[in-house]
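Predict structure. Chain length: 143.
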Amino acid sequence: MTYHHVLAAYDGSKASNKALSHAVKLVESRPGSKLTVAHVSARPPYAFAGFGMVMPSGYEERMKEYQDGMVRQAEEAIKGLPYAKAVVLDGAPSAAILEYAKEYCCDLIVIGNRGLGPIREWMLGSVSHSVVQQAQIPVLVVK
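Prediction complete.
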């Protein structure tokens, strides 16, 4: 099957690096395919100015530096691809990934799996599990 627009979720973890590597290889094997690497900036619920806790001094600057670092890592991995870009999304990770995939007509999502195990996944949830359950397009989970 040929995919025209692949969305790879990226958070800098070992699992997401493996997923990104797999997505790059997939797109390289299909000339003309597009790859978007998405890093989701998920703020803790209390991290919105004016609500809940007071934001620590320098919080926004540190978050921006972290996001820029994620984008630089992703751009380094995709630099040889003609139709590739890295983006930063805001919100809950699974929702942001699914919304982007729908809005930009992606036809495959590639995502890493940290292997939380059934108990921890049930208690904590899992971005990859949520994406697989809710996606309207194919999802490739890379272990």
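Summary: Strands lie at 5-9, 34-41, 84-90, 108-112, 139-142.
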